[in-house]
């Protein structure tokens, strides 16, 4: 098996204690009941208006939850979650271990956003950094992280959360739920984050990757232009709206 599997830009947070799942259930976009040892889930922590602050993958950890997040956002995410803890007997702390990825099966589970993204698992920090992950993700039109999603800039459904299994519409209340649910029931997502060939950066641009010839932009759905529109996004765009 290749040892070049480490996603060096990812770290872990452990949320444990009495009803840790219940604590997160009232905060994040995904249903914690769906998080199982063989089924991590992509989720977001939003503003009250439904805009993305952080995105991450939730893993089962024998009653606790491990949050697979951006390494350079780990401290900020710990602080944000701790704001909601109040006096609940919940521990929120950085955790040992790292995130690994491979395009080939053999270890881990399929990425919860899109199976074509490859296989993901948690392990130690051994091995070299994975090569090809960033380009592979972007070529599939999948955006992630504060640089691409923004912080308090993009509505969660504009991050393609419904199409990439990042939200539950049946779980009940969470921060930002009201506006997110309203957009879903009205089938009204006017803008989306998309990957496009590298061009001149403008107000819509979120991130640029000159070495890959790609950029991430926040575009209106009627003006996607040369955006990368792969199968999952094409289906969403073709769906009838009310």
Automatic annotation (TrEMBL):
InterPro entries: TrmE/GcvT-like, YgfZ/GCV_T_CS, YgfZ/GcvT
GO MF terms held by the record: methyltransferase activity
Record keywords, A-Z: Methyltransferase, Transferase, Transit peptide
GO BP annotation list: iron-sulfur cluster assembly; methylation
Protein name as catalogued: Aminomethyltransferase
Organism from which the protein derives: Sphingomonas turrisvirgatae
């Amino acid at each position: 098996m290749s040892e070049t599997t480490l996603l060096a830009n990812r770290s872990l947070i452990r949320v444990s204690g009495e009803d840790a799942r219940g604590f997160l259930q009232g905060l994040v976009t995904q249903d914690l009941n769906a998080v199982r040892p063989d089924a991590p889930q992509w989720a977001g922590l939003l503003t009250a208006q439904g805009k993305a602050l952080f995105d991450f993958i939730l893993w089962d950890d024998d009653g606790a939850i491990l949050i697979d997040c951006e390494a350079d956002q780990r401290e900020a995410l710990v602080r944000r979650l701790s704001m909601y803890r109040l006096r609940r007997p919940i521990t929120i702390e950085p955790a040992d271990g790292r995130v690994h990825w491979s395009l080939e099966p053999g270890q881990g589970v399929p990425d919860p956003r899109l199976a074509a993204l490859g296989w993901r698992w948690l392990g130690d920090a051994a091995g070299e950094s994975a090569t090809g992950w960033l380009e592979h993700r972007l070529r599939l039109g999948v955006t992630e992280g504060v640089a691409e999603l923004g912080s308090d800039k993009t509505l969660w459904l504009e991050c393609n959360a419904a199409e990439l299994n990042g939200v539950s519409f049946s779980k009940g209340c969470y921060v930002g739920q009201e506006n997110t649910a309203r957009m879903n029931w009205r089938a009204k997502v006017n803008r989306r984050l998309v990957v496009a060939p590298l061009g001149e950066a403008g107000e819509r641009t979120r991130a640029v990757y000159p070495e890959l010839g790609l950029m991430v932009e926040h575009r209106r759905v009627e003006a996607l232009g040369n955006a990368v529109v792969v199968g999952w996004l094409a289906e969403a765009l073709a769906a009838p709206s009310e």
